[in-house]
Amino acid sequence: MTPNKNKMIKSIKLFLLMLISSGIFAQDSSVTVTKISGFVKGDKDSVLRGANLVIEGSIDGATTDDKGYYEFETERTGPQSLLITMIDYSKKTFPLDIISGINIELNIKLSKEVVTEEIIITASSFTSGNTNAVTLTPLEIVRIPGADADLYRAITTFPGSNQVNEGSRITVRGGDPNEVLTILDQASLYNPFIFDETFNVSSYSTINPWGLRGINFTSGGFSAKYGNVLSAVLDLKSYDMPQGTGMFAWLGLANASLDGVYLSKKRDFGATFSLGKLFLQPYFAVNGEHSEYSPIPQSNQLGGTLSQKIGSTGNLKFIANYSDDKVGIQSSTPSYIGYFNGSSKSFFTNMKLMVAPSSSTLLNTGISFSYYNKKDNFGVLNTNSKSYYSKGRADFTKNISSKIDLNAGAEYEYNGYDINGAIPVYSYNLKPGAPSTLLDTNTNSGRIGAYAEGQFRVGKKFFFIPGIRTDYFTLANKASFDPRFAFGYQFTKYNALRGAAGIYHQIPKLEYFFRAEGNDLKPEQAIHYILGYEFNKDGNYIFRVEGYYKDYANLVILNTTDLFYRSEGEGFAKGIDVFLKTKIKNKFTGWISYAYCNSQRKQYDAVSLTPSNYDITNAVSIVGSYNISSEFVAGASYKLSTGKPYTPVLSSSYNQSEDLYIPVYGENNSSRFPTYDRLDMNLQYIFALFGKFAVAVISVNNVLNQKNVYNYTYNFDYTQQVEIISNNQRSLYLGLGLQL
Q: Which CATH fold topology does 125-238+331-739 show?
């Protein structure tokens, strides 16, 4: 391999590393750089391919090639430390004294690592972070075809989770979407979406995966640190400090964005900004419109961060994000045909302080506020709702010894909900002038929570985590008490058993309290039982199988006698998740997931146990990403799943006073949509443009153009069922990203 060719490949790899670090760093031609190069070898002078080298505290580095050769450039000068890591080898640090413009040749030899079998596994978790057992990374999120670089859509390729109407909201193991909690740097995110709950318009998340240093998705049996959630937790951690300085621009067939990062020379202050806009005219011109819009979907996003180091161990970070959306889409119902008009505005801000009082303790504190305003109009329906959330939280971790860690924390959360406008008296009569109920009401609730848990390691093969949390809900005047327990046993180097059990509570949505006598609703309850097996060989080969059972109580149900909501519902969910992932270094990454679920509930207007709204019995996902060359990466993903349940209309009767037909419904969720089937493909090309790094993307979603059903409607007298096909039909997308 020639030095020039090798240098080009290293530059491409460095570019990808910079992407992962959430910034594209501009280079100043006036600054003199230093080239560092050499070979990395192992025992008996064996060639080490894929060893990682990086200057500590920077992103300057490279990965060794087939001959063990590395080469990179840096603007750093003076005393520095070069960190070298390689799987199965002990990491090594070399001191460097860099003089600007004076190249350094450094050959390195690594020794085999003494293997310990300490386990770091969590029941039902798929994590991303600084460990060898990475199962989902920001780069993988961006490369998953059909995910559209959306964190939530990427998660639905893992077992147990499914998309809601092909949007970004997800359901987990038969639960409702509102039973999944997203946390970013201790703050709860309740509405991180645009076009959320809009008729036949897919929602998208507002979370940028490149800004994340840790992703932990837990589909059950989660820690006592998480409260007020029944089904799943997505815990996200962002970079405390930006990783460099520069800007990156993106222009696509449907959107444009500009991102920038700044890091001071002393690396004690940093800032980021992000601008994004959605415009679908070019996209529709290429792919056609599958619905009538007025206006067509549009959205704007703006956000940024400020970070400041405090002392030698502290860091203060401020986050603010704003987004809005607007759309009008034609909708047809038996009583009214017209445009569903929806719009929303969302604002989120968070301040986080992290400090290490001693070498064995860590304190994280944060305070956040979010606001969400949504307007909907369709026929007689005309509502304006506002949600307010504020939260203060503190978490304390103490490392007692190499075998014992203690965690404790407390939080207070305030939720407010206002709604005004008009809603139909009868769900089947939506035409303008139909009987309606005028709303102008509000409510609010506070929640005080606290937890404590310990992590105990017994030898090198067994750990267990007992925990306890309690929450008090001010509106309902109810308290919950939740003991939880998790364990793991690694019986060989690559094989482990894991399990968890615990009680979980979540307060019902505030709007249900409007029709609850004396606010008498209890926190909904779920008891989780989980047991699984995992084979994990250095993160390159992963196999997981996990069985679970969830027992629900105190679910909200409409009492047919007095028409009040009461906590008299029940239910269960049981199933098995299977996951297989393989990774061939620098060439291929892929996984197959399968989930079986049987979820039944007596909830809302169901008078007996029937399939839950998101009971997806069988679901299969296949994902693959292949590096054709150093410049080209191709990917494909395929999803096949049982159709979700729905309640059919069996007949109707004519109502002369309203001049329409009244539907007669069958048993709740007694029918199902057809099987869901979708294939997506993409291709990415990394190259140089105007002397700058660039990446081009071409993707085709729903390659086979399957007509997946979004919903059913009926003609005026309900004698004919009409399919509403999802707008996510076959589509082409083109995009170009450029370092500035």
A: Maltoporin; Chain A (2.40.170)
